[in-house]
Structures are given as structure tokens and as C-alpha cells.
Amino acid sequence: MGTQVKQNSTADYLRMYRQMVRIRSFEDNANQLYLSAKMPGLTHMYSGEEAVAVGICEALTPQDKITSTHRGHGHCVAKGADFKQMFCELLGKEEGYCRGKGGSMHIADQSNGNLGANAIVGGSMGIATGSALSSKMRGSDEVTVCFFGDGATAQGLMYEVMNMAALWRLPVIYACENNGYSEYTPTDEIAAGSITARAEAFGIESFQVDGQDVLAVNDLAVRLVEKCRNGEGPFFVELMTYRYHGHHVGDINREYYRAKSEEEEWKSNKDPIIRFRSWLVDQGIATEEEIDQINYEVKQDAKAAVDYALSAPYPAAEEVDMHVFTDIKHAVA
Amino acid sequence: MREITLSKAVNEALAEEMRRDERVFIMGEDVAEAGTPFKILSGLVEEFGTERVIDTPISEPGFMGMGVGAAMTGMRPVVDLMFGDFIFLIMDQLCNQAAKTHYMSGGKLNVPLVLRTNLGATRRSAAQHSQSLHALVAHIPGLKVALPSSAYEAKGLLKTAIRDDNPVVIFEDKLMYQDSAEVPEEEYTIPFGVANVKREGTDITLIGTSSMVQVCEAAAELLAEQGYSAEVIDPRTIVPLDEETLIRSAQKTSRVIVVDEGHQSFGVTSEIASRINEKAFYYLDAPAMRIGAMDVPIPFTPALEDLTVPTPDLVVKQALKLLRGEMIDAA
Fold this sequence. Notes:
The structure holds two protein chains of two kinds.
Chain A: H1 10-35, H2 50-57, E1 65-67, H3 73-78, H4 83-90, H5 125-137, E2 144-149, H6 156-167, E3 172-178, E4 181-182, E5 185-186, H7 195-200, E6 205-210, H8 214-229, E7 235-240, H9 260-269, H10 272-282, H11 288-311
Parallel strand pairs in A: 1-2, 2-3, 3-7, 6-7
Antiparallel strand pairs in A: 4-5
Helix pairs in contact in A: 1-2, 1-10, 1-11, 2-8, 4-11, 5-6
Chain B: E1 3-5, H1 6-20, E2 24-28, H2 44-48, E3 53-55, H3 60-72, E4 76-80, H4 91-104, E5 114-119, H5 134-138, E6 144-146, H6 151-163, E7 168-173, E8 180-182, E9 196-199, E10 204-208, H7 212-225, E11 230-234, E12 237-239, H8 243-253, E13 256-263, H9 268-279, E14 289-293, H10 302-308, H11 312-323
Helix pairs in contact in B: 1-6, 3-4, 7-11, 8-9
């Protein structure tokens, strides 16, 4: 695990561990809801990438902002969201974060600074950079983290906003989650050259980090967030990670683009949760029993939230034309 | 009352709102020292500085997206899009992001953003600098669309747009920037969704948007010379649309022509005419008719360009057919 670790307390370490397990547990349940046909639509699993979201979001305050992606449950949980409201949203229920109107791909939780997942690949890069501009204009020390995948580096918007972020020294961190696949295509086939070099071309200091090592991610994030608060942004981080599932839950037969042996290798030897668990035990921060207890509690929480969401009511039909505009109660009167 | 140009009216609206609310700022290409190619914003950077009048690179999707993010986090950006034709470049940020954020978040996130841009042909600027693309925007739920028809409307509607908590797109006719109109010295705003009956009449209703209001007024004058009384109505905003005023007028005059500078097919004229045909049918002596821009890319040569836009003569010709009980020419 990371060597230059900041002095986290035992509580910090255990919270990081719990947050990673919460993401995994959330995704396992979401996948089951899909497979048992209880969830409308599709969803994109974050399993395998937990150390990225947790390592970064643990470096942020609730006032700091993030923008998220179609593979966004991990960011949402890591930024502080509640299971019940999240499962309600996935199931299209009224108590969901977005009253069921956004769903998996659009979960936003402004109470914790999550400006929303985005179903357009790279679509939130302008929003994140604008949030950083806003923070600077308001004289706030808020930092914005823009999460996106390796696939989004093929979008032109990224280059436009990185240029402006660099010109205006905006407090934004571009967090590229490189999970090796751009939907159904290996990233090597769609990205020429180096990914970090793209940001370096704008004079943005860039880093590559092991995205399966939560302490390494967190250590870097803490340093970069601090620098952003001091007006030294923007930064770019490429986080080397892996998605255990297919592009979405329905992408099951995927051997034409990815070997099962490769998936097994990552799951067995590079799993961020197993690695961090071993480290916690080795360091004497927690016992196996204490960790099992965390796992058990999270599972129970997730189960309770799923049960709650399954029986929660859908929004009333009259909601359909509400929230189109802020000041027109029903847009289709 | 004093008269000022539409350009000056826009400038005053921005300056007043920026003085009133420090969250309001402008961003776009050449908005600061250059004051835009039309010199509309001249003087603003001197008063408000480059931190609130921000020159951007030529990156329309980038600065539009940044406007959305800034609006979601406590600012009130006025994004300047140099030509309305460039709206195609920002469609994702405008239509997938700005328009849907409030709805997709279940009402939790707001995007109080104004996109200022323009429309209008006959400036001999050819097909990529002459389009009137407001129908594209009006088609997307979540966006309000304002079409000022004079300096007075330009100022009042822009001030309202800036105070609105929703994304608003305001299209100014680039050929009207130097046109003057009476504009009060005192503060005023113009509410959205309230049409303006510019001229009362009894025989036919001419509904015009933006500079087509002038075209309709000129046509009404010509019709008056022939003994017909035309009512001219300016909806001022097409989203929201003051359907009630339009339908009431249709019920009164029984004949309606809708004139707009967007392409006629699938456009603003089609939408308004349909609503009138659906909701005032039993009062009409003839179907509500459309006159939009010709369905061709705008040609460069004046010899052809002038044929593509509605003119007072064309409106009169079609109006006379309606008034005489003949069908008007198909598009």
C-alpha cells in the first residue's frame, strides 16, 4: 500500500474501509435488482473501482463539489449519500434523491456537493469546470472534482475546458478513471499516446496513480485538494483501475472484448477492498472480527434499504410535468 | 421619451443587472475589450472588470458548459454566443445539460443561466451566419425562449431573463441592433408569457416574432390602405407562450397569419398556427396560416437571399387572399 500516507486516525481508516464496502454492497444489490427484474432500465456497476471514489472523496468536505458519470453510484456513496434515497432513486420511487426522475444515470445529491451523474460521456466536464470558476468568483475555497472515464478523453469538450481551467487557474481536479475499457472497446484501441500528456499539454500538472490502492489515491487527493484551495489548481489524475462487470449490467457475454482470466486476475490479486483489509489487519488498526462486523453491518444496512425502497411509493402521476421549470408548477397545464 | 438603440438597450440591461446582483457575469468570445463584433457590450468591462466580463477562447461547448456549472453553484451567468448559428455547437450543454438539470434532479438543482445570441438573415452573411434557430430551442422542455422585437423589449426581457431561475435563451435580431425605440429611463422589466397587442384590428390577426413584428406592422399599414383592419400581436416569449391572447384575437378576427423568420417547416409558425387551429377552430373563417423563412440554406447573394425571408408585401399578398376567401399559397 501507499508509503507516504498522511496521518489518518483509526476512525478515518475504518470509515474509508466502510465506504468501499458500502459501494461494493450497493452494487451487488443493484445487480441483483436488475437480474431479478425488480429494477427498471439498466445500470453501470462501479465494483472494482471503489478505491478511486473513496480515496478522493475522503479528501473533500461536504461543501466541495463533484460531477459524476453514468458509472456513478460509487461517487455518490463516497460523497456521503444515503442508501435508502439511492435505492429509491434506482427503483424510480418518490423518495429517491431525484424523486425517481433521474434514475441510476442521473443521481444528484446537492446536500453533499454531488452535482450529478451524467449519461453523456464527458458531459459534465464543463459543469465541473464552471463549478470551479464559480467557487473562485465567489471567493470560496471549495474544490471541484470532475470524475470521468478513459472513454471521455476522446471528447473535445475536455480539451476546451482544461484549456480554460489552466488559463484561469481554477480549483478543479480532473480525475480520469482508467478502467481499461471504453464501453465495449479496449482503451488502447481508442486512445493514442499518453492520457496524462493530454493535460500536460495545457501546463496542467498530472499524475498517474494506482487506483486500487485507496491510501495512495487519498494521499495524492489530500495534497492536490490543499493545493487547489491555495489557488494552485487545476490538476489531472489518471487512476489505473478496473471494472469487474461489463459496461452495464446487461453486458454479460463479453469475452469478445475481455478475457475471463483477466477479470479473475484483477479480482483475485488487485481487489482494493481485500488489499486494504489486509493492510488494516497487518497494521493492527483492526482485527478480522472487527472488519467482519463492518461487512455485516453494511450488508444489513443495504438489505434494509433495498426492502424499504421496494415497498416505497412511486411518484404520483401529477408529478410528470412538475420540475420542468422552477416557477411553473405544471409545465403542461 | 428618449429613444435608444437595441444595442444600447441590451448594454443598459446588463449593466443594471450587474450593478444590482454581483452574481451576474458575462462570458463569451470577445465580450470584454472588443465588446462583441456588434459592439453591444462596449464599456461593460471598464465598469465591471475582466473578472465579470470574461473573454473566453473560441470554445462554445466549453464555455457554455462552464456557464451551466457556474449557474448550478450560485452564480448567474449571461453566456454570449456570438452568432445564433453556433448553437449547433453547444446543443449538448444547452439541451442535455442546462434544460434537464432541474427536472432530472427532482427540482433540487437550478440553472439560472441566460444565453444571449442572435438570429436574422439579409446581412449577406450566407448560410452559417444568418439562421434563425429559436424553434430548435423552443422544442426542448426546460428552456425559456425570448424574442425581443424592439429596444424596449430587448431591455425588459433581458432583465427578466437574468432574474429568472431557469435557463433562458434570448435571440436578438442582429439587423435591429441599430434600430431605435422609446425606452424609459426608469427601471422596468417585461414579464414572460405576456403577449403585446401592438395594433388592434378586427379583420385579421398577424402574429409576428422578433423583427417580423415590424414586418407585420408594415403589412397592417398596407392593408389599412386597402380598407382592412389588421391586429398585430407580438408574443415576446414563445416559451412560455401567451396562448390566451393569441386565441382571443383569433376568435375576434377569424383569420390568422403567423410570421416568423425561422424555417417554415416544423417551426414556430407551425406550432402557433396549430394551436390556433385546434383551439379556435369554430371561430375561424380559414385555417391559421404560416409564413416562415424559405426551407433552403440562406444563400449569400442578395439576389437570392431576399427571396428567403418574409416581407410586408408577402404578408399582404397572403392576407388579401385570406380576406377574400381564397386559400393562400402553399409553402
